[in-house]
Amino acid sequence: MKKQKKVQMKSGSKKMLMKLNLIALLIIVTLVACMATTANAYSTGFEDIVYGSYSTIDYSWVSFSNNMGNLNVVDSIPGPPLSGIHSVIGPNTWNSQERNIANFLVSGIRQVSVVMGDYDADQDPLYLEAYNSSNVLVGSDYQVLASHIYGGLTLSVATAQDISYVHFYSGQPYPGSVFFDNFSAVPEPATMVMLGIGGLAAIRRRKK
Ligand SMILES: [Ca+2]
Ligand SMILES: [Ca+2]
Predict the structure, then answer these.
(1) What is the pTM of this model?
(2) For residue 160, what are the CA distances in angstroms to 104, 111, 138, 191?
(3) CATH number where 76 lies
(4) Residues with CB under 5 A from ligand 1 (ion)
């Protein structure tokens, strides 16, 4: 900011204008870099969690749990897009009410994606449901993993409202019988874009 004011005070010459353009370009590049970083703000493939059984799997930004029992970090990777050597599966109760849950510990989450998959044994209907802090459904995704597939599908939601938590699970005939991996969450991209536009507008005004 100080630099820009100094440049403006000397003003006049084409050189100075070029300098201003360069500064504007640098700011734009920085903003774009910030937005790109924000686009991948939070993610985990569970590679950092030791194999075992957990009532909750906790990160600074999210807490994972299952309404029917413990989550199990296992070495089952049926195929892509599951990846690495760690995935997670619930208690596998075959109860249609079994839900994996991710409670966000940070505010402003607007996009969520998760990979769910299985070995080829059965067809898996896959569900992702996003709720706001008033327990209102604000977004959902549904896909069916065919019975011959070794691997999974990526389910995602993007909403205009803040997401407080998501449920993700598989339905009949064997509810709960899928592994999940590569969970990611993106906070408020709209706000970041508005900040970027505001910054650019300020630069334009200064140049005039
Ligand atoms: Ca993994
Ligand atoms: Ca299954």
Answers:
(1) 0.75
(2) 16, 9, 8, 11
(3) 2.60.120.1350
(4) 45-46, 84, 86, 181
